[in-house]
Design a protein that fits this description.
The structure holds 2 protein chains of 2 kinds. In chain A, 37% of the residues lie in helices and 16% in strands. Chain A contains 21 helices and 20 strands. Chain A has a 6-stranded parallel beta sheet with strand order 3-2-4-5-7-6, with helices on both faces. Chain A has a 6-stranded parallel beta sheet with strand order 11-10-9-12-13-14, with helices on both faces. In chain A, strands 16-15-17-18-20-19 form a 6-stranded parallel beta sheet, sandwiched between helices. In chain A, helix 3 (37-44) links the parallel strand 2 and strand 3. In chain A, helix 2 runs parallel beside helix 7 (144-156), helix 10 packs parallel to helix 13 and helix 15 (378-389) crosses helix 16 (401-409). The N and C termini of chain A lie far apart (82 Å). Helix content of chain B is 29%, strand content 43%. Chain B has helices at 15-25, 54-66, 96-108, 129-138, and strands at 2-10, 29-37, 43-51, 70-75, 81-92, 112-116, 120-127, 144-156. Chain B has a 4-stranded antiparallel beta sheet, with helices on one face. A 4-stranded antiparallel beta sheet of chain B has the order 6-7-5-8. In chain B, strand 6 (112-116) and strand 7 (120-127) form a beta hairpin. The chains are: A alpha/beta, B alpha+beta. The A-B interface holds A 125-126, 129-130, 133-134, 137, 154, 186-189, 310-312, 314-316, 319 and B 9-10, 13-14, 17-18, 21, 25, 55, 58-59, 62-63, 65-66, 68-72, 164.
Chain lengths: 577, 164
């Protein structure tokens, strides 16, 4: 090798940083350790890539995930080997189940020590294999840049997902010429884009001949940036639309055609319409068990059209009649075109009858609750939050009752604003995810709705929020219980509240204050609106709002285990107000 | 129903684990699995024999296709195809009678004896799994010292082929 070439060579740590910059990455969430020292030294020596230091690796991955979900750009997390990698796994699995585009970099012990049970060694590639879209171990510094390019390419194309890159310490100090490929070709990976036109024509025909149609859309529409196409198609057809937990925000919730979320805690009208439908149009949704109820009773009269980018999602849980594999924006555009060009018209008479039926279900007002209670009702808090922010805030949530209340009562006016762990159901997701959202959108209102159980699973990130001045608004619905589990114990275990009562809660106000934040406790319904307004008005500080809510409140309506869409439990209060 | 799925995959460390892990994680069963590099050393050819309903087999092929390292696959069972398995058997032949009997059976089954010493023979035999099973049943089970089977290899008949 001649002198000139040697001059162009850089160490793996610098290659890593330069590759990320070339990829357009601006923020990276991480926590340093022995195996990543060279990388962290490279990060120290530049100022294009901003590193956000979290307090636990799970937080790093959730933050990168929140960043990815709210922007559509890949989220990047950097953790060290061994416990750094294992702590990241929950975050990776969370991203995997919700198809979030992410690249996670784990440090690894030097190549010569791999397999020797070295200090802080785990088989990160082996452990993460079932919860990543793909993963790599980089054994040679010469492969580093190209491997990172492949990782970003795989993470962001097709059905997105997390990709892990494991980099041994010696690879980060060895030298190579830095060259970041503009594109990368992987012969075994060719994601589909357009749907089959013959299938699209068949689908259009089936859709137009429906008498009781319903559109059921999911997170794929959000991930595929196809909100406009979904709205266009729905308006063109005039059909009712229901959405999954992950789909919320991709159709205006105030529109008359929207019948609310479906599934276990969906609306009565959405679930009844699903049950009675004769043509089901599934768009970017995957027939998950919380959506379908018991499969034997799922949509007994419906022919099913299913649009999805992932062939393995089709006919996995429910056999479909017309599958269309393709990117949802492309398929919907072709579908809209086909419907506009055909002479066939939808059955206006049948549709009028169908809407009349749906309105009778809607008249049950299934989301009504007791508005005269002397205790704060969680629904009331979310309803007010939605009004005050006009449905335009970013809302990250944890997992449990509060998550369902957000889905039911917060009217998301825009896609990518509802950030929650739908597939894996990861408690502890909310606060770090909100951090990622706030980093990506420094001037926007970012709310974390959480519970007294969930918040304690990643509470250490309050410290990160202080260090990086993240003015997140934490709305904690504090009922002193693990509410969702308690709800099941109340309904199905004769009120044996086994280990769901949270004794010895901290004083959250003092806790927030000890981290340099503002704490507020709200105990009366009459204080809710003012407190929210006051908290939201503070733009430069994190505000921790502890809402002491009715301990007995439950999430209704509900489909119990083993039941179908038409067998919902309605709340006792639905007749009130 | 039993299916024989033939896969071309990247010849990379971990590719086999991805396939094996997929089967265990999703609760699919593997009856046999064979894998070796092809004439192009960057690729491996794998043959998996599995059992399942049509729905499960459809999921298996879709999930396999979804693995980034899988280049192409076919379900050989969908067309006419050939399956072969290689078996090595070590048998005890300490008496003249046993030597003669084993030699006769090996000839009938068109196998060959590939190693001989005072007390035992090693037999090589290829064929369908059924034929190999039949041979094992035919010989006196008390004579068998060791059986090694390769698992099933498959290839489509006629002009159909699995290549890049």
């Amino acid at each position: 090798m001649n002198k000139a070439n040697e001059a162009e060579m850089m160490i793996g740590g610098d290659i890593f940083v330069n590759a990320l910059i070339a990829e357009g990455v601006e923020h990276i969430f991480g926590y340093p350790g022995g195996a990543t020292l060279h990388i962290y030294d490279a990060i120290f020596k530049q100022n294009k890539l901003q590193h956000i230091l979290v307090r636990h690796e799970q937080g790093a991955v959730h933050a990168a995930d929140g960043y990815a979900r709210s922007t559509g750009k890949p989220g990047v997390a950097l953790v060290t080997s061994g416990p750094g990698a294992t702590n990241a796994i929950t975050g990776i699995a969370t991203a995997y189940l919700d198809s979030s585009p992410m690249v996670i970099i784990t440090g690894q012990v030097p190549t010569a020590l791999i397999g020797n049970d070295a200090f802080q060694e785990v088989d990160a590639v082996g452990i993460s294999r079932p919860c990543t879209k793909h993963n790599f171990l980089v054994k040679d510094v010469k492969d580093l840049a190209e491997t990172l390019k492949k990782a970003f390419y795989i993470a962001t194309t097709g059905r997105p997902g997390p990709v892990l890159v494991d980099i041994p310490k010696d690879v980060t100090i060895n030298r190579a010429v830095f060259e970041y490929p503009e594109t990368v070709e992987i012969r075994s990976y060719k994601p589909v884009v357009s749907g089959h036109l013959g299938q699209i024509r068949k689908a259009a025909d089936m859709m137009l001949s429906a008498k009781r149609p319903i559109i059921y859309s999911g997170g794929g529409v959000v991930l595929g940036n196809s909100t406009k196409e979904l709205i266009d198609l729905t308006r063109l057809l005039g059909y009712p639309i229901t959405q999954t937990l992950m789909g919320l925000g991709s159709y205006p919730p105030t529109d008359k055609q929207f019948v609310g979320m479906l599934g276990m805690h969906g609306t009565y009208e959405a679930n009844m319409a699903m049950h009675e439908s004769d043509v089901l149009i599934a768009i970017g949704a995957r027939f998950e068990d919380r959506v379908t109820g018991v499969l034997e009773k799922f949509c007994p009269y419906a022919k099913i059209i299913h649009i999805d980018i992932d062939p393995s999602s089709i006919s996995k849980n429910v056999k479909v009649d017309i599958p269309i594999v393709g990117a949802v924006d492309q398929v919907l555009q072709d579908l809209i075109q086909t419907i506009k060009e055909t002479d066939q018209k939808s059955d206006a008479g049948a549709l009028t009858t169908w809407w009349k039926q749906i309105e009778t279900w809607r008249a049950k007002n299934c989301l009504n609750y007791d508005r005269n209670s002397p205790l704060i009702k969680p629904q009331f808090v979310l309803e007010k939050l939605s009004q005050l922010t006009e449905g335009n805030a970013f809302v990250a949530s944890d997992v449990g009752q509060h998550q369902m209340f957000v889905a039911q009562y917060y009217q998301f006016a825009q896609p990518r604003h509802w950030i929650n762990s739908g597939g894996l159901g990861t408690m502890g997701f909310g606060l770090p995810a909100a951090m990622g959202v706030q980093i990506a959108h420094p001037d926007e209102t970012v709310v974390c709705v959480t519970g007294d159980g969930s918040i304690q699973m990643c509470i250490q990130e309050l410290s990160t929020c202080q260090q990086f001045d993240l003015p997140i608004k934490i709305i904690m619905l504090n009922n002193g219980y693990l509410g969702m589990v308690r709800q099941w114990q109340e309904l199905f275990y004769d009120k044996r509240y086994s280990h769901t009562y949270m004794e010895a809660l901290p004083d959250f106000i003092k806790l927030a204050e000890s981290y340099g934040h503002i704490g507020m406790r709200i105990e009366k319904p009459s204080e809710v609106e003012n407190a929210l307004a006051e908290g939201l008005a503070i733009k430069d500080r994190l505000v921790f709002m502890d809402f002491v809510i009715d301990q007995d409140e439950m999430v209704y309506p509900m489909i119990a285990a083993g039941k179908g869409h038409h067998e919902m439990l309605l709340s006792p209060e639905r007749e009130l107000a | 129903m039993r299916h024989t799925i033939s896969i071309l995959l990247e010849n990379e460390a971990g590719a086999l684990s991805r396939v094996a892990g997929l089967f265990s994680a999703r609760g699919y069963n593997i009856e046999s699995l064979t894998v070796a590099p092809t004439e192009d050393p960057s690729m491996s050819r794998m043959t998996i024999v599995t059992k399942g309903t049509d729905e499960i087999i459809e999921q298996i092929t879709k999930q396999l296709n979804k693995l980034i390292d899988v280049i192409k696959l076919i379900d050989l069972t969908e067309g006419i195809h050939i399956e072969r398995e290689l078996m090595l058997v070590k048998v005890n032949v300490s008496t003249a009678h046993h030597r003669e009997e084993i030699k006769r059976f090996v000839d009938i089954f068109r196998g060959s004896i590939i190693d001989v010493n005072e007390t035992n023979y090693t037999i090589e035999m290829t064929g369908t799994a059924d034929k190999l099973d039949a041979f094992i049943k035919t010989i006196d089970s008390t004579l068998i010292l060791e059986v090694v089977r390769s698992g099933i290899l498959g290839i489509a008949r006629g002009s159909k082929s699995l290549h890049l």
